[in-house]
From TrEMBL:
Keywords: DNA-binding, Transcription, Transcription regulation. GO terms for molecular function: DNA binding; DNA-binding transcription factor activity. Residues 147-209 form the HTH crp-type domain. This is Transcriptional regulator, Crp/Fnr family. CDD domains: CAP_ED. The keyword Amino-acid biosynthesis does not apply. It comes from hydrothermal vent metagenome. Gene3D superfamilies: Jelly Rolls, Winged helix-like DNA-binding domain superfamily/Winged helix DNA-binding domain. One of its GO terms (cellular component) is cytosol. The keyword Repressor does not apply. It holds the Pfam family HTH_Crp_2. InterPro entries: cNMP-bd_dom (IPR000595), cNMP-bd_dom_sf (IPR018490), Env_Response_Regulators (IPR050397), HTH_CRP (IPR012318), RmlC-like_jellyroll (IPR014710), WH-like_DNA-bd_sf (IPR036388), WH_DNA-bd_sf (IPR036390). PROSITE patterns: CNMP_BINDING_3, HTH_CRP_2.
């Protein structure tokens, strides 16, 4: 139990809860283990439970009109998953899948709502967390609409250099809503232009000025 409490305290939304509150949260929850590529929920499912990622990583995604996956969000730290659907009490608007073996705390949302969201201070933090998530989603949607393929890749590498080397190129292509072939061509182009270089088997930014020119007017 102590291990779970320590993990809960690492979640921004729960870090100010006292031991009594944390113990209650645990009492209305259970831990579920998922294998890689397991579905946590589908678009349209009713959010009777609230999910907190404890270990592993997940993708929240939709399909575009061509049937291709578009990743809206990747989570690889201790964090709530799609909590806006819980608060609004609407069906999940997207799908959620594990990227690797993962452990998730499954929380009884009705009991959570009755106990925690009646507390104005906690409700404020909860809504603040949701606002931050919506801002991130707006940024993702803006990236898909406003940026061309070169700009998408350049901006992603500039902001996520470590993740770029950690994630598979197929996964990154889904995040950027481009094909893996397009991603490979752009990476080759950036290397030829000296924007990127390979150091110890990893792609690194060689020119921050040049890479920024692709996505900043």
């Amino acid at each position: 139990m102590n291990n779970i409490i320590e993990k809960l305290k690492k979640a921004t939304i729960f870090q100010n809860l006292d031991d009594k509150q944390l113990n209650y949260l645990i009492s209305i929850s259970y831990i579920k283990s998922y294998k890689k590529d397991n579905i946590i929920f589908y678009k349209g499912d009713t959010p009777n439970y609230m999910y907190l990622l404890l270990d592993g990583s997940i993708n929240i995604y939709k399909h575009n009109i061509r049937g291709n996956e578009v990743i809206l969000k990747s989570i690889n730290n201790i964090s709530l998953i799609a909590e806006l659907a819980n608060l609004e009490e609407v069906p999940y608007p997207s799908n959620c899948i594990t990227k690797e073996d993962s452990k998730i705390l499954v929380i009884d949302y009705k009991k959570f709502k009755d106990y925690f969201l009646s507390n104005p201070e906690f409700l404020f933090l909860f809504v603040k967390s949701l606002t931050q998530q919506l801002m991130k989603l707006e940024e993702i949607l803006s990236r898909h609409i406003a940026l061309n393929a070169n700009a998408k890749v350049a901006k992603y590498i500039y902001e996520n250099e470590e993740k770029f080397n950690k994630y598979s190129k197929v996964n990154i292509a889904k995040i950027l809503n481009i094909t893996p072939e397009t991603l490979s061509r752009i990476i080759k182009k950036f290397k030829n232009e000296g924007v990127l270089v390979v150091n110890n088997g990893k792609l690194t930014i060689n020119s921050f000025i040049k890479i920024r020119e692709y996505f900043i007017d």
